[in-house]
Amino acid sequence: MKRILLLPALALLATLACLAPAGATDTPATPAADAHARVKALVESLHPLTGEVAIPAAQATLQLKPGYGYLQAADAQRVLTKLWGNPPDDSVLGMILPSTDPATVLDDQTWAVVVTYVDDGYVSDEDAGKIDYDDMLRNMQKATRESNAERVKEGYPAVELLGWAEPPHYDAASHKLYWARDVEFRKPDGSQDGHTLNYAIRVLGRKGYLSLNAVAPIGELAKVRADMPAVLAMTDFDAGQRYADYNPTTDKLAAYGIATLVAGGIAAKAGLFAKLGVLLLAFKKFIVIGVIAVAAAVRKLFQRRK
Questions:
Q1: Position 3 in a domain
Q2: What is the 3-state secondary structure (H, E, C) of the chain?
Q3: pLDDT tens digits for 285-301?
Q4: Domain range holding 156?
Q5: Is residue 4 part of a domain?
Q6: Which pTM was predicted?
Q7: Is 161 among the domain residues?
Q8: Taking CA atoms, which of 47, 172, 195, 228 is between 20 and 30 Å from 158?
């Protein structure tokens, strides 16, 4: 499960097999050629939007700066499932790309931001200035190690949370929160099986929050760190749905605060804290981080075909 290194051979073959047409014969080069054609067709069918982009399901709007693109829900979900090998997830509302070229989804040296929305209610930021993130990190690392047996049982690599690649920051004026985790995946024998960056952004609103999860190779941290302020600035809720519009007499209050968002708000919602540990956050999140390696493999396939 990683961003640069290739997935295990069986996972890659399974992905390519899913792309091969039904009834394809197992002859040399045919499955690869079919997969190449289908990936090419998928990429060419993507239609990144530019400029002002509405996200109706979240009552939010993106003001994309020149050079940035956005894949709407259907396109983003096809990339995640058919190209990157994730299980279907209809909660994905879109994907921000640092380019208007759809082939960016095949580039293993860039980032992509997956956009979802969580309508758990207004998240109070009263605890924002009281959080000991060093202590939180230690607890998250312990929970991650304790949940590895379940991950391995389910067929996923063990995970080691190495630390903050970017410590959590909360802007009380814009009500936007961001942080980055330095995550390492391990094989059954304990050896390293990948190293990735999980950069998370949360934009708080009146009825919930926008969740923007950037996936990138750990070596691109400087680039991601430089680009994420632009992503933050481009993202906001529509008038009437912003954090300041909260009405305590009529609006729902979330059952958690800033600390839980960082430690795993979605896991709390799904009831996964007790069962699998705070860093699990549903298996698909780690898959999103990792299977971009498939894109790297396909990109190499394109190069070989050329």
A1: no
A2: CCCCCCCCHHHHHHHHHHHCCCCCCCCCCHHHHHHHHHHHHHHHCCCCECCEEEEHHHCEEEECCCCCEEEEHHHHHHHHHHHCCCCCCCCCCEEEECCCCHHHHHCCCCCEEEEEEECCCEEECCCHHHCCHHHHHHHHHHHHHHHHHHHHHCCCCEEEEEEEEEEEEEECCCCEEEEEEEEEEECCCCCEEEEEEEEEEEEEECCCEEEEEEEEEHHHHHHHHHHHHHHHHHEEECCCCEHHHCCCCCCCEEEEEHHHHHHHHHHHHHCCHHHHCCCCCCHHHHHHHHCHHHHHHHHHHHHHHC
A3: 333 333 333 333 333 33
A4: 9-305
A5: no
A6: 0.74
A7: yes
A8: 228
